[in-house]
Amino acid sequence: MTATAATATTATTATTATTATTSALVEAVRAGRTADVVSLLDGMTDPERRSCFPELKALRRELRTARWSAASRRTHPALHAAGAACQTGAAAVANWLAAVDMRWSQASPAVLLHVLGDRDPGWLADVVHRLAQRPARANVSYELMAGLVRLSGCPVPTTEAYVLGWLSHISGTWQHRDTVRDRLRRDPHLAELVAALFRTDGIGTRLSWPAGDGPDGWTEALARLTAEGALDRRAMVDGCVARLLRGGTPAELRVFLRILQNLELTREEERRRTPDWTALASDAVSAVASYAQSVLGALALDGKLPPRRLAELTDAVLFRPEKKLVRAQLVLLGKVLARDATAAGELLPAAAQAFGHEDSDVQERALKLVERHVGKVTATDARRQLTHAVERLIPTLRTRAVRTLGVAPLTPEPVVHEEVLPCPPVPVRLAPAPGTAVELAEEVSALLASGGDVSAFERALDGLVRHTHRDRDTLLQALEPVIARRWWADGEGLRGRHSDYYFDGHHEVRDTAGAFDLLLATLGGQVRTTTLHRAARHEDTDHDCMHSPLARCFEARLWEVAQRLRTDPQPFLLATPTWDTGLLEPGELVDRLDTYRRLGARVSAVDFGQALLRVRRGDRAAAVAAAEQASALDTEEGRRLARWLTTETAGPPVSRRTAHTRILVELGEVPGLRDDLPAALRPLGRPVSVHRERWYCGHWNGEIRQHWLALLPGRPELVAARLLREVSTVAVDDGRGAAAVLPRLAEADGEAGEAVHLCVAYGLGARHAEDRLAAVDALLVLAARGALDTDRLGADLGQLVRRGAVKPVRLADAVRTAAATGANATIWGVLRQALPLLLADLSTGTAGPTGTTDTTGPAGPSARGIGELLAVAAECAERTGIRGDLPHLSVAADRRGSSRLVTQARRLRSALAQEGAAA
C-alpha cells in the first residue's frame, strides 16, 4: 500500500470514528443521560468536541418548537453541558450557558465546572466575567460563577448579578446549621463583596431576609464582623453614609441605616462627618433625616457643633414637610440657647425662618422660642432680621409678635385678594382623518401600544372606515405589520382557541386596544360574518352593573362598524365629533347626510343615533338653521335630525339620594333617550338604580371612561351617576385609581349636577394622593368654568365626613392643596358650608365625624381632622379678607386647652373678626 493510500485510509478511519463519537454524544444528549455525556466529553479532544457542536445546535433548534414538553425538559440539562463543552470561544460559551431557552432546565453547576475545568485559567476568567455582566434576571447560577472564580483565580466580579447571587447564597442559612455571620467569616472575598453591597441598587430590602434585625440577620452580622476586625470599620462607615447620601426608597435605606446604627459610632466619628449629617438632615428620607438630626443635636449639646453650623442646619430642616422634624429642630434650638446665650444672635434669626411655615402651630412654636430668648440678642443685624421675619406670621401671631418682641407696629393694609383659577378648558377641533393608509397604520399602531384620547380614537376610527371604503387592499397592506404583532394574527387566540371564540359577539371592549383589535381582526378575516351579524343585532336587555349601559352602547357602535367593514363599507362615519369633547356641529352633520344621499350610501342606525346624541343643540339659532337644511334633504334621516334639533333639550332627570355609609344618586328615566334612538342606544336613558345592579364588574380599565363621556357630551350628570359608586370606593374602601376620570368629568360640557359634585367630594377624601390630586384638578376646572356650586359641594362634604365616608385629615390635605394654587375664596366657599355641620356635632357631643357617638371632645381623633380643616379655612380667610360669622365656631374656640382644634378655631374666629380689611 502506498503512503498516499495509507494516509487516506487513516483519515477515513478518523472521520468514521469522529462521526460515531458525535452520534453517540448526540444520542446520549437526546436521551438526557448526563453522566454518559460527561464520560464521552472527557474522552474527546478539542477538535472532536468542536465537530459535535453543529449537531448539538441543530438539536437545540428542534427543541425550541416544544420547549415545555417532557422530552425537552429531559434533554436540556445534558444539552446545556455538552454545548458549553463543545465550544471554544468565551463569549459563545457564556451566551450558551445564560441562554433563555436553557434557563429552566440547566445542568448542575458541578457538571458544568467538571466539563469546563480543564480550560486555561485566563479563558475561565473571561467566561465568568461575561456571565457576571448579565442582568440579574438572567438567573445565572451563583455556584457556577463562584466555581469558575475559584478555578481561574481571577478577581471576584462585583456586578449586580454576582452580588445578588452571593447574597442569596449566604442568606440560605435555613438549610444549614451555621449562621450568616459564620458563612461570611469563611468567605475569601468578604471585603470586596460587602463593599459592593453599598454600590448595588435595590439590594437593601434583600438584606432584611431571612432574619431581619435578629441575631442571625445581615445588619447584626456585618456589625459583629466589623467589631471583630474581619471588615474595615472606616470602610463600613463610609459605605453606609455614602449609600444613605445617594438616596433610594425608604424601605431600602432603613436597612443601611440600621447597619450604621449597629456600628455604634463614637462621638469623634460622628463629628468628622458633620457635613454628611447636615446633607442627610436636609434632603434624605424622613427616617434617615431624623437620625442625622439626632446626631447633630447631640454634637450641638456637647458643644462640638458651632452655632453657625447649627443655624445652617436649621435653615434646611425648618422647611421640610415633616412637622416632627421641624418641631424637633425648634426644641433643639431651645436647649442650645438655654446653655449658650451667646448663640442667640445666630440661632434666633434661623428659628424665625419658621415664621413663614405653612403650619400655624409651627409658627407659634417658633414665636415662643424667639420670645423666650430675644433678650439675649444684642446685634442690630439680628434684630433687623427678626423684625422682617415677623411680617410672615399669620395676623394673630403677627399682632402678638409686635407686642412681645417690641418691634415697630406694622401698618395693616387692606387685604386685596385676586382669585387664581386655571384657564377654562377650550374645546379643540378634531383634525381630519389620516390622509393615507400608511399614516393611518402608524396612528393605529400608536393607539394599540399606548392608548389615546377621544380625538385620536375617533380620527383613527373614521380613517379606518374611509380607507376601507376607498381601497381595502391598500389598507390591509399598510396594516400588515401592525396586524402581525397582534395575539390573534395567526388564528390562535386566548387559551389556544380560534380568535372567533374570543370575538364571539359578547366581546367586551375595555380599552382602545380592544376596540381596534376587534376592527383589525374583522379586516384580517379573523371574525366570522355570522358573528358580526349576530353581534350587531343588539337588543335592550337587562344590564348587570352600573357601567353596562355606557359600555355596551360604546361597543354597539364598534360592532356595527365592524359589520359594515366586512359587508358594506361606509364612506365615512356620521358620528365623528367636531370637537374633542365629543360635540358635533349640526351643520357638519347635515353636510355628511347630504354626501350620503348623493353617494346612495346606507346610513347605519347606531352611527346615526350616536351622531344625534353628539349634535350641539345649545345654540338655538344654529340648530334651527341646520334643521331647515336637514329637512330640505328629503330623507328619513334628514327629517329625524330636523325633529331632534327643533326639540328642546330635556332637563336633567328626576334624581333622589340614597344614603347609608355612603351617599349615592338615583336617576329617573330620560324619555328623549328612549323614544328617538335605536334600540342599541336606549339603555342610556334607563333609570339609574343603586339597588338593582350588582356592585362588581369587569369594567376596571379607566381609559375607557373618557369614551363614555363622549357618548353623551353635554350630559355629564348621566355619566357621573353611573360612575358615582365606583368613585366612592377611593374614599370609603381605600380604593385606587377610580378618581382619575374626575378632571374629564369636570371638563365636560353641560351642567354639573348632584352626581358630579358628589364624585368630586369623594375624590377629595380619597385614600391615595393621586386620586385627591385628580379631584383637586376637577374642583378647580369646575370653578374656572363657573360650574362649581360651592354650597352644594360643602354640604356634601360635611355629610360625608359625618357619616365616616370621608376622613377629615384626607379632605384637609386636598383642600389645602387647592388653596395653595390661589383658589382661596373658592375653598372658603366650600368649607363655609362643611364646617358648621362638623362643629355642631362636636359642640353637642352627638355623632362625631366617624359616624359614632363622640363624647371625647377635641382630644379625639375626629377633632384632629377638624382642626386641620379649620387651619385651611383660617388661612383662606386671612388671605381673602373675608369677614363674618361661622355657626358653632365660637363654641369650639371657647373650649379649654390648646389642642389643634381649639387653637385653629380661635385663629379662624380672629381672622373673621379682623377690622380694616375688605370683605
Automatic annotation (TrEMBL):
Superkingdom of this protein's organism: Bacteria
Boundaries of every DUF7824 domain copy: 497-650
Coiled coil: none
All residue ranges annotated as the DUF7825 domain in the record: 706-817
Protein name: Secreted protein
